[in-house]
Design goal:
The structure is a single chain. The chain is mainly alpha-helical. The protein has a domain of 63 residues. The relative contact order is 0.07.
Length: 93
Amino acid sequence: MDTNKMRDISREQFEKFALSSEGGLFAGHLAKGEDGEYLNYSAQCYWLFWQASREAVAVEIEQIRSEAKRQEDGLKEMLRRQNKQICALRGKP
């Protein structure tokens, strides 16, 4: 998924939350200027915080995926070596 599409989805999620009772904003708070930034200072700050939190999660997920891939590769290599040793003990190439 491209970055713009992900950002659009994130903005939709943010606005849905912002307008909920937990978010505490009203529709007027979400008016945007020509640059796409919220005109309401609080809404703009919340949006920046929202983006930062999502980016932090994305980085953490990528680190977890990278570690999982490293472990998977190591396990595959270990199994390949063990299989080779078993075949050698049984006299098979």
